[in-house]
Amino acid sequence: MAYKKISVKKLLQWFLKNKRDLPWRKTKNPYHIWISEVMLQQTQVATVVPYYYRFLEKFPTIKALAEAQTDELMKCWEGLGYYARARNLQHAAQTVMREHGGNLPKTHEALQSLKGFGAYTSASVASLAFGEDCAAIDGNVLRVFARLYAIADDIRLPATKSKIEQLATLNLPKGRAGEFNEAVMELGATVCTPKNPQCSACPLNQDCAAFQQDAVLSYPFKSAKPKIPHKEIAIGIVQREGKVLIALRPPDGLLGNLWEFPGGKKELNETLVECCKREVEEETGLQVQVGERIAVVKHTYTHFKITLHAFLCTYQSGEAHPKSSQDVRWVALHELNQFAFPKANKSVITALLRRSESSVGTLFEPMV
Q1: pLDDT in tens, 19-29
Q2: Which pLDDT does position 361 carry in this prediction?
Q3: Is the Cα torsion angle 17, 23, 25, 27 positive or negative in sign?
Q4: Could you please report the per-residue DSSP string of 73-125?
């Protein structure tokens, strides 16, 4: 089937007049563009902007990122989520320093050899920083082109994504790929939105098959996600001599290189208190008495949800060892904010500090 090209000139004119004033649009520094693209993955622009400034102030060059201490890097990324992004950034920076003389490769194909550089990030950085003629396909682009061409196929399927990449490439203006990629993404983020699209303000409404059919909200078609599992987690805030115990997660996997309070998933026919006591012992070797529950935090990850139950615990016996972590450390309450914690644990820390400030007696009262 032959597809008609859209009015790219109208799109680029619209983008010139309407694009948001964002810091990474004011630079051609490949490193800065790379950092912004990684931060923007699955994260809203308003959230990214302050992180972008802080990150580049802390790690102004690829060399600085490559040589960064893990704790400093994770603390700088704390709260932004999807922490594998930070680990992959440093791994890629180290590879660039070691194998590419400190300079990012200039083609999307070469960029994909670096950790964390998937098809989208590679194409986006190559087009924006180096002017390569390649289409960058993210969720916004998928939605815009599915509507422009009334593509009824399931947007989750690789074949559908491949079709849309071909359509984006068909419309790619030679020598202006970066501008085109940004314009389509901007259109999807501000006009051709998932709900309540502003079709009357769209520069491409006369090209849009979905608009002509008066069926914009019917596209794209996305099959339902499978129901994600839910886990009950119990963690122990173990006190000894005025300090609490924290553990450093393994470097790889979910929340790698972040600190946390010891704990884990509740087993079948096990109470939360029993789970907390067992997990603390299995992870650290300590015997504890489980006390009051001070916080319940609900959190959603990509593939599962958790309800986190935080219990105050009093130390009874044993010496703490990192049985399932990289390290364990006893720290004072006022020192907790010096460490990078996952979001759910940060909520627990807030509750813990609030309780500490209002407590007239001892903070850790065992259950009777």
Answers
A1: 999 999 999 99
A2: 46
A3: positive
A4: HHHHHTTS--THHHHHHHHHHHHHHHHSTTS--SSHHHHTTSTT--HHHHHHH
Q: Give yes or no: 37 in active site.
A: yes
Whole-number Å distance between alpha carbons of 17 and 60: 31
Q: Quick check: 359 pLDDT over 80? A: no
The DSSP symbol for 223 reads P
Amino acid at 189: A
State the Cα–Cα distance between residues 186 and 115, nearest whole angstrom: 27
Q: Would you list the DSSP string of 147-176?
A: HHTT--SBTTSHHHHHHHHHHHHHHPPTT-
* Under 8 Å between Cβ of 248 and 323: no
Q: Which two tokens stand for residue 320?
A: 């703490």
Q: How many Cα atoms within 13 Å fall on the side-chain side of residue 32?
A: 14
Domain residue spans of the chain: 8-218, 230-358
Q: Write the DSSP symbol of residue 227.
A: P
**Structure-block tokens of residue 124:** 């986006």
pLDDT tens profile 40-85: 998 999 999 999 999 999 999 999 999 999 999 999 999 998 899 9
**Do the strands 305-317 and 230-240 form a parallel or antiparallel pair, or are they unpaired?**
parallel
* Residue 301, CB-side half-sphere exposure with 13 Å CA sphere: 18
Q: How many CB atoms lie within 10 A of CB 338?
A: 11
Do 329 and 322 contact (CB within 8 A), yes or no? no
Q: Which CATH number fits domain 8-218: 3.40.1160.10, 1.10.340.30, 1.10.10.10, 3.40.50.300?
A: 1.10.340.30
Which CATH architecture describes the domain 230-358?
Alpha-Beta Complex (3.90)
Query: How far, in Å, are 48, 309, 331 from residue 294 at the CA level?
Result: 31, 8, 19
Q: Give the C-alpha separation, 313 to 273, whole Å.
A: 10
DSSP 365: P
Given 37, 165, 186, 279, the catalytic residue:
37
